[in-house]
Write a structure and sequence with these properties.
single chain; 2 strands; globular
């Protein structure tokens, strides 16, 4: 079990070196990831909240298919963290391009 804790601590330290106070984290349902990492960050854009609708959070694969015309998380391949991250970022770019009165 000490190996797991050491790996966890190493991962946490590596993230703290990469993520500065000014970084903007973009992702889907980031609250669970940040909670697992015991991390609080002030600049978070969570696509599960940006695209929230109908009283529930919509899945990343559904949003990607509907908004981007892109199939991700296929049954054969499963979850690919890079693919998910790119989809979340592309969803935000799409939202900014298609929303009136957005100032960047």
């Amino acid at each position: 079990s000490s190996g797991i804790n050491a790996e966890y601590g190493d991962a946490q330290k590596a993230l703290y070196k990469l993520i500065t106070i000014d970084c903007i984290l973009v992702g889907h349902s980031l609250e669970s990831d940040l909670h697992a990492l015991q991390m609080i960050h002030r600049n978070v854009v969570d696509t599960s909240l940006v695209f929230y609708g109908g009283g529930y959070k919509r899945g990343l694969a559904t949003l990607s298919a509907e908004c981007l015309g892109r199939i991700i998380q296929s049954a054969d391949a499963g979850h690919d963290s890079t693919e998910d991250a790119v989809a979340a970022l592309d969803l935000m770019k799409h939202k900014l391009k298609t929303t009136d009165n957005v100032k960047i």
